[in-house]
Amino acid sequence: MHSGCDCITNLNMQQITTVFIDIDDTLWWFSRNSEVALETTFRLMGCGNWCKSYDTFHDHYEHFNHELWQLYNQGAVEKEVLEVRRFEQALEASHYCCDDVDELASAMNSCYLNQLVRQEHLMPGALELLQYLHDKGYEINTLSNGFKGVQERKLEAGGMNRYITHVVLSEDCGITKPRRGIYDYAMSLCGAKPEEIVMIGDDPTTDIPGAKNAGWKTIYLNTRNVPCPIADHTVESLLDVKKIL
Ligand SMILES: [Mg+2]
Prior knowledge:
Oligomer: single chain
Mean pLDDT: 94
Helix content: 40-55%
Order of helices and strands: HEHHHHHEHEHHEHEE
Largest sheet: 6 strands, parallel
Number of helices: 10
Number of strands: 6
Number of domains: 2
Bound molecules: magnesium ion
CATH topology of the largest domain: Rossmann fold
Shape: elongated
């Protein structure tokens, strides 16, 4: 693992003018905020009346949501399908057996997204890092496969949006990370050359390989103890990025 603290590793960052940062679980604490939103949804929708265990429902939801997001990132499933099907599959796996399952799934998704954007936990150090990068003169942009409207609301948490020049979303260009098109689209917006850009993200299968493939430098935020050997730098906390940039 590169520490990013020595002069040699920092040399290749001297050309960097532009930073792209992933949103979920890099700036905005998605996993924590999502837990609250899901549990609230389960309660508000009265799911406890037919499903004995929230934990069981939660585990099914996480499983199907993860599977569907992998398909979405590959461009193999539409957003509207993902949103409803994750709840539909979790309901069915939890033995919900009324024939309004698609209706309930759709209502749960709306409730969940509504609850999600109200949550404001940021990843530790997020605001401090944004202020630091801003003070050092970097252009700061975000690059995310998350949904329009939802992502913009998340960036309002703690006033993160005041630091961001371009909010680049896969929905705007129709191409998801790690596919090359979204990185080319992002470059066309900011006008920087590949060697002037660094990507910071927590996903070793989307953020980092996609950015490397586009010729960008990469900083991998390893919060789940999953190595990503192709990353130029790996940090375990956002504030460690200050040692690199
Ligand atoms: Mg992420």
